[in-house]
Design a protein that fits this description.
about 575 residues, Transferase(Phosphotransferase), domain 1, 4 domains, five-stranded antiparallel sheet, 22 strands
Length: about 575
């Protein structure tokens, strides 16, 4: 049985009755790991006939799609990666037009229509701008998968509503479809599909000796039927799909056995074990010395109990893959030396310090500025994950280390969700049910079975900030017991403001918003939450003013007079202070 994606491809392009061919097409079929992580890319573009430079636009669009896409981070989803490429390509084409003699006539600039297809794992990802088309033939039936972005003024007159390079920004259609073995996709320009029906296409494919010959026959038939335009066809047939449990990480499991029980002074693949640092049902962590450099490192090995749990072992391997793609001073770094491994283990930097949990025990009443700094550093670490389309999903004091200099680092990537891997139906560990990480800090939406978002990590960070300021969790254990939306709407936030600590009410407002059970009501970004812990929100000041007037009018006017005086002093200093 096959363990990977396999396709047959055929393509043909011709100028037809025109002097030159302004269509362009391309395909990239990588091998090995890149096939699993990025997939197969096909694209065609049709330069508009009114432009003398549209062939350059079409070639640039296709080349970027089938080349630059593979330079995007592996952790990104196909949609994010491809749309980034298309957006950058569109911006470049639009800028070329603006710098040319046709800057006031976009119909003669660097403009083209575009259709692209990326096949990854068991999914087809479609990207479309303009009036090229993508059809699918399945079990003898054809289906048009794209919509023409062309406005019909009359039977004889029409114009493109959308195209690459036409405007400063591009609005590309995106669609994802499950693949079946035997599916055949056809990408075509209007010089073909305006003149050849899908019935002929199906018969040409059945009769031809290979897909290249079928593509040539389809182009020839469109020309015979009177097509006056350039003609391009790409055909791709799905001949094999990945097995349900076959992933690139999973295939590596067979290459490495589990590590033996490690003891002090043991040698392991160029490391000398010093002592055990941590042990759990999932893994063991030991302090070791790199024999080559003398540096101290942490060696993590999976627990023997995981031997019969392939999904857990895949996730263990994924931790190293994740660590090598995150670059932040606030995230645990992998140990870089590459040496052959005799067994399954991961080496990381050793952090001389303590966990945030231990720090909280030692410092039960931290000052507000200290809490702000902890939140700021942790948020920067989380942002490094989010830039790679990863969610940590298990942020808690035990998974944050503080070194001797006061620098915080996020550790333990066992629950991290990676968008690029979640797309692969074969990566079962991404699809595993249940609440990721520690339920005490997990966002409420996880208890509803939802996949979570960056706002789920924000909730966990806010829960830690709340605990630092109050010594308790915002909702206790109630979120874990609230597994319906109705139950979560009954959750009530408990203020951190009390008589024992000087905590401004606007800090409490920022926490309350970040800890809202409804993720849509939280701050949109980590940076917004960090800012809210340093600056009162405008709506808070508007609410505070009438409340203070009613409670203590004399105090309010005194404060207002002081603020006015300070403002005047600042103004005078600017006027006469040089």
């Amino acid at each position: 049985m096959s363990t990977g994606l396999a396709v047959r491809v055929g393509q043909h392009s011709a100028a037809g009755r025109k002097e030159r061919n302004q269509d362009f097409h391309g395909v990239c079929m990588p091998q090995g790991g890149e096939l699993a992580t990025k997939g197969i890319a096909l694209a065609l573009a049709d330069g508009i006939s009114s432009s003398d430079v549209s062939l350059a636009a079409a070639q640039a669009a296709v080349d970027a799609f089938v080349t630059d896409y593979y330079c995007t981070p592996e952790a990104w989803s196909v949609r994010t990666a491809a749309l980034h490429v298309l957006s950058a390509t569109n911006a470049w084409l639009h800028a070329q037009t603006r710098r040319s003699e046709h800057r006031f006539d976009r119909e003669r600039g660097y403009v083209c229509t575009f259709s692209g297809l990326i096949l990854k794992s068991t999914t087809a990802h479609l990207f479309h701008v303009g009036d090229a088309r993508i059809h699918r033939l399945r079990a003898g039936r054809s289906e048009l998968l794209t919509e023409d972005h062309r406005v019909r003024v009359s039977a004889e007159e029409s114009y493109l509503a959308r195209a690459l390079g036409m405007d400063r920004r591009v609005d590309a259609d995106y669609r994802a479809l499950a693949l079946e073995r035997g599916d055949l996709f056809m990408l075509s320009t209007d010089g073909v599909h305006d003149h050849v029906d899908m019935g002929f296409v199906a018969s040409a494919i059945a009769a031809a000796d290979g897909l290249d010959a079928a593509a040539r026959a389809i182009v020839d038939e469109a020309l015979r039927r009177g097509s006056p335009d350039n003609l391009t066809v790409q055909l791709v047939e799905i001949t094999a799909l990945p097995d349900a449990q076959a992933g690139e990480l999973g295939r590596r499991l067979a290459e490495l056995p589990l590590a033996p029980a490690l003891q002090a002074r043991m040698r392991l693949d160029g490391y000398t074990i010093v002592r055990e640092l941590h042990a759990s049902a999932r893994s063991h962590v030991h302090l070791a010395v790199d024999d080559e450099s003398g540096a101290r490192v942490a060696i993590k090995t999976p627990s023997v109990e995981l031997q019969q749990d392939p999904a857990a072992l895949e996730r263990f391997l994924l931790e190293e893959w994740i660590a090598r793609r995150i670059d932040s001073p606030h995230v645990l770094r992998p140990w870089r030396p590459e040496r052959p491994r005799s067994c399954l283990h991961v080496a990381t930097e050793f952090i001389e310090g303590c966990s945030l949990r231990q720090w909280m025990i030692d410092h039960p009443r931290p000052g507000l500025d200290v809490v702000r700094d902890i939140v700021r550093q942790t948020a920067r670490g989380l942002q490094a994950f989010h830039r790679q389309e990863m969610l940590h999903r298990d942020l808690r004091p035990e998974n944050i280390m503080i070194d001797a200099s006061g620098t915080l680092r996020i550790i333990d990537f066992g629950a991290v969700s990676v968008a690029g891997i979640a797309e692969c139906a074969g990566e079962a560990m991404e699809m595993a049910g249940g609440v990721p990480g520690d339920s005490a800090y997990a966002a409420p939406e996880y208890f509803l079975g939802e996949p979570g978002s960056t706002r789920a990590d924000l909730f966990s960070l806010a829960a830690i900030a709340y605990e630092l300021l109050s010594g308790r969790l915002p909702y206790g254990v109630a979120p874990a017991q609230s597994r319906t939306r109705a139950a979560q709407r009954r959750l009530r936030y408990r203020s951190v403001v009390d008589d024992e600590r000087e905590i401004p009410s606007w800090i409490d407002d920022a926490l309350a918003r970040a800890l809202d059970p409804d993720p849509a009501r939280r701050q949109a970004a980590l940076s917004e939450f960090v800012h809210a812990l340093h600056h009162p929100a405008p709506d808070h000041l508007r609410r505070l003013r009438p409340a203070l007037i009613a409670r203590d009018p004399a105090k309010f006017w005194k404060l207002l007079a002081i603020v006015a005086l300070l403002a005047n002093l600042v103004l005078l200093q600017r006027l006469f202070g040089g």
